[in-house]
Amino acid sequence: MAAAGSRALTLLVGGTNGKGSCSAYLSAMLAADGYHVGTYTSPHLLRYHERIRIDGEEIDDAALLAAFAEVESARDGVALTYFEYGTLAALAAFAQAGCTARVLEVGLGGRLDAVNAVTPDGSLVVSVALDHVDWLGPDRESIGFEKAGIFRSNRPAVCADPEPPASLLAHAGAIGAQLMRMPEDFRAVVVDQTWRYESAHGVLEGLALPPLAGRVQLGNAAASLALLEACLGTQRLPQLARGLGQARLAGRFQVHQAAGVEWVLDVAHNPAAAAALAETLAALPPAARSRCIFGILETKDAAGVLAALTPCVDEWLLVPTDSARALAPAALSQALAQAGGGLASLWPDVASACRAAADEALPGERIVVAGSFHTVGPALEFLGLS
What we know:
The protein has 386 residues and is an alpha/beta fold.
């Protein structure tokens, strides 16, 4: 473990999907090994404080205000974006708290993201898929180059995407990053009701299945272990792995039972994430009927997300998200028709859709909430899970 007063172990986590899960795994494992862990993620579901966590707990008002005050004092009139200001505040909060490890989730892309101003001990790119194409480029090769920008020369660089773009591999090679790929250099192998982590340096047997649901989570957990193995050494893995089961993450295939009705809340907001959600839903025991409360931002591929989810949904409740960039329900209806259609109704907000779905659903039925952080957040509040 890092000694008090030494530079904090710093890990960057990027990728299109899976960043939040891997950040949760890394933070929980480092805590299990005795680190004092600061975790920075984005966006938030309900409260800004969710973005800055210290030892798993949201930052409190006093500490957040102290961090903002430090940034305000230091910036000396320099203009900062919302995300730049928040990133600096997180770093200030971690320094003020004496954190010995920092897990920093990239906000958008990687190469030009504010988080990338920090020099990491190791970096992880979880996945590369189409999202934010207006900023990152129109294809996986363009996006892969941007994601690879968080890698550093002669530092561990983990890629969990099983088919990484050539641009990512080329950049890692050009800068001399210590690249580890899945499944070539590490992998997860299911054994009955457990799994094992395998790498060139060792094997960990009898691991409990990840607490976050979905087949994709095995890869996320293995990638997180690979990054820690590369940064801290193989001998630390047994102690680190004990923390995997402590990982928690709201709004990622979060399941809640109410009056015999199963609620599934997931922030899937691009086609790849929606496909993973659909795969996980399909693996559940079938529901008598499935409704989906769906809202998404106008910058997203709404039709692509809806198309991925359509096989799992009997009825749609379309809502505007709680955002100025919300896609209007009428436009959502058009996107649904483009995606293949289905029975749908339009609602003025997430809460009213949740109330209607809850009133209509019978025991044995399922309600899915998906499409955006701005959709899942209010649904969590409606269910009293905030």
